[in-house]
Write a structure and sequence with these properties.
Pfam families: 4HBT (PF03061). With about 140 residues, this protein is of the alpha+beta class. The protein contains three helices and six strands. The N and C termini lie far apart (about 30 Å).
């Protein structure tokens, strides 16, 4: 079932993130389905921590970007989605290549939304699982 209430496309998602942390980190939007968004982040000098691993905060940036975009485009016209809570469990490190994330809704309600995000390395192994809760602000 299609969850989007506003027009959504890869071009739209890329355009709204121009000159933001998302663009600076090299995050790329890859696919929009009926109930998911997929994006990836490179593991490189911009995104690694001193041990050579993808910085956990960068994983959270990717997760929050995916979940926030999902909530924003699944919200009725005029509503705004703002983050209430995010958690992330880092399961496996990544030292090179790309980490890809996919988000799907767990709950789309009138006042809150919850989105699940899974990040995987190029071998398809789970590197991080995250969940974000979004508050839905009604038009003034």
């Amino acid at each position: 079932m299609r969850v989007w209430k506003k027009p959504i496309s890869l071009e739209e998602l890329t355009a709204i993130h121009k000159d933001t942390a998302v663009a600076h980190l090299g995050i790329e939007f890859l696919e929009v389905g009926d109930d998911f968004i997929r994006a990836r982040v490179p593991v490189n000098t911009r995104t690694r921590q001193p041990y050579g691993l993808l910085h956990g905060g960068v994983s959270v940036v990717l997760a929050e970007t995916l979940g926030s975009c999902g909530a924003a485009y699944a919200a009725p016209e005029g509503h705004r989605a703002v983050g209430l809570d995010i958690n992330a469990n880092h399961l496996r490190g990544a030292t090179s290549g790309w980490v890809t994330g996919i988000t799907r809704p767990v709950h789309i309600g009138r006042s809150t939304q919850v989105w699940q995000i899974e990040l995987t390395n190029e071998a398809g192994e789970l590197t991080c699982v995250s969940r974000i809760t979004m508050a839905m602000l009604t038009p003034k």
